[in-house]
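Running this now, will post back.
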Amino acid sequence: MYTFENTLREKGFTAVCGIDEAGCGPLAGPVYAAAVILDPKDPIEGLNDSKKLTEKKREALFPQIQERALAWAIASASAKEIDEINILQARLLAMRRAVELLDIRPDHVLVDGNRNPNIPDTPTLLIVGGDGKSASIAAASILAKVARDHDLLELDKQYPQYLFAKHKGYPTKLHVEKLLEHGPCPEHRQSFLTKIWARNGR
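Update: finished.
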């Protein structure tokens, strides 16, 4: 999991940053992104694609990453921004925001996927499936996922009728049922609801 980072450090890069996002598919809530610069002298055991980890394991790794990384940051793009600029652009925007919030300026970034967020003046390596291949991207995926899940728990308190705590905004049968029953709230992505309305004669 540290091969990409170690190879870049051997080439002289000293602040290699992993970037990943969480929440592209849900019908509600922001899309989150995180940026992490790990400490090569303090490798964290158990890092992997957040989707391959249990919630308990993600929650355990979340503070470890924050305490032991050289730098980390979490950012988001709102449901309104997703509707305005589309989910791809919102995802890339959240990634850029996360990098801007870092205490250390990265000299190279590793990005999960095949879309370049275009971090200014910073060489970038795109890695499809990177959250399962790069420790720093995996760490970013965990921070983004857990932070978004926590946000949805807060939205559950604000809008209890949708049961966000159960489905985290994803298009589950339960979520769609509650959406049809109550209509959308301000945190729903209106651009994501078109097909649901069409299927249900709205």
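The radius of gyration is 17 Å. More later if anyone needs it.
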